[in-house]
Task: inverse folding
C-alpha cells in the first residue's frame, strides 16, 4: 500500500528531527537559544559511528549489543560536550548566543565530514564505511508485534531509537508540567532575575538543560546514521534536518508532545516530492520548503492569538548575569 509506505517513511524521516527538537526545547526552556543543534547532531552521528567502527575493527567477532552500547555512550558524551562548550561560552564567558550557536554548527558539520572522510580511508576508500553488525541492533524490530498485518508495519517495525525519541518527549512534557524542577526551569526561561531572587540556581539549571538538551539532540544524529542509513556515513548527508529541528520547536509551540506529531508532519512534507509525479528539480526543492512555510504560518497565527502558553520563553536568547539583576 502506497499510503502505508508513505506514513512509514514519514515517521522514519521525522525521528532525527524529533530528537533535535526535543533537545532544543529543553535548552530553550532555560532561556538559551542554541543554534548549534545542527552541528551537534553531526557530532553525535559521527561519534557514534566512530565508536562502533573502532570496536568492530578491534575484534573478529563483534557483538551487536556491545557495539550499540559503545556507540550510544560515545554519542551522548560527544554531543553533551558540544552543549558544554556552548554553555561555557555563553553562560560563563558571556559570548553572544547566536554567534556561538552558528559557530558550533559550522564546527560540528566540519568535524563530522572530516572524521567521516578519515574513517572512509581507513575502511578502504570513500563510501566504504560500514558498521552493519552494530546497525543491526539499532534496526531490530519489535518481536512478534511487527508481524501483525498492517498494524505491525505501521507501529512496530522500527528500531528502539524511534520509540526512545517518543518516550523522551513524553517524559519531558511530564517533567516540565508536573515537577517542581520543571517549574523552576520554566521560571528561569521566563524571568531569570525573579527565579534567582526566589533561590533558584539559574546558572546550574541553564548548564544542565543545555548540556542534556545537546545530548538528546545528538541522538538524532545517531539515529540517522545507524537506524536510517544502516550504519554508514555520507558527508553532508544530514541535509537541513538540524534546522528543521529548530523550526519544529516553533511549530510545536515549545511543547514536547506537539513535537511528536509535528516531527511526523515534517517528515511527510520533507519526502512528499517523491510521491508527486511530474515534478522538476526546481519544484522538488520548493516542496522541501513546505516544513518552513508551515512553521512561518504557525508562528504568525500564534503571535496574533497572543496566548502566553503559545509564546517562546520571555528571556529566550538573552544572557543573564546576576550582578546586573
Result:
Amino acid at each position: 500500500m502506497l499510503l502505508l509506505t508513505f506514513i512509514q517513511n514519514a515517521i522514519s524521516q521525522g525521528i532525527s528531527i524529533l530528537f533535535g527538537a526535543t533537545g532544543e526545547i529543553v535548552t530553550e526552556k532555560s532561556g538559551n537559544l542554541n543554534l548549534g543543534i545542527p552541528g551537534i547532531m553531526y557530532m553525535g552521528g559521527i561519534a557514534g559511528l566512530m565508536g562502533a567502527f573502532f570496536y568492530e575493527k578491534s575484534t573478529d567477532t563483534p557483538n551487536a549489543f556491545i557495539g550499540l552500547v559503545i556507540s550510544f555512550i560515545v554519542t551522548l558524551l560527544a554531543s553533551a560536550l558540544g552543549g558544554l562548550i556552548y554553555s561555557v561560552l555563553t553562560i560563563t564567558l558571556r559570548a553572544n548566543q547566536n554567534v556561538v550557536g552558528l559557530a558550533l554548527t559550522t564546527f560540528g558539520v566540519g568535524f563530522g565530514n572530516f572524521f567521516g572522510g578519515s574513517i572512509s580511508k581507513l575502511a578502504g576508500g570513500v563510501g566504504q564505511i560500514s558498521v552493519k553488525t552494530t546497525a543491526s541492533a539499532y534496526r531490530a524490530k519489535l518481536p512478534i508485534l511487527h508481524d501483525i498485518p498492517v498494524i505491525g508495519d505501521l507501529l512496530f517495525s522500527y528500531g528502539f531509537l524511534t520509540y526512545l525519541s517518543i518516550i523522551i518527549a513524553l517524559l519531558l512534557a511530564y517533567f516540565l508540567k508536573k515537577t517542581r524542577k520543571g517549574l523552576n526551569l520554566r521560571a528561569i526561561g521566563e524571568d531569570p532575575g525573579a527565579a534567582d531572587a526566589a533561590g533558584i540556581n539559574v546558572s546550574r539549571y541553564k548548564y544542565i538543560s543545555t548540556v542534556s538538551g545537546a545530548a538528546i539532540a545528538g541522538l538524532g544524529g545517531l539515529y540517522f546514521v545507524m537506524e536510517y542509513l544502516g550504519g554508514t556515513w555520507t558527508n553532508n548527508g544530514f541535509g537541513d534536518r538540524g534546522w528543521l529541528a529548530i523550526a519544529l520547536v516553533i511549530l510545536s509551540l515549545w511543547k514536547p508532545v506537539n513535537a511528536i506529531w509535528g516531527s511526523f508532519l515534517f517528515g511527510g512534507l520533507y519526502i512528499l516530492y517523491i510521491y508527486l509525479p511530474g515534478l522538476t528539480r526546481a519544484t522538488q526543492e520548493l516542496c522541501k520548503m513546505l516544513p518552513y512555510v508551515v512553521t512561518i504560518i504557525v508562528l504568525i497565527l500564534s503571535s496574533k492569538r497572543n496566548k502566553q502558553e503559545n509564546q517562546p520563553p520571555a528571556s529566550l536568547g538573552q544572557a543573564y548575569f546576576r550582578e546586573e539583576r
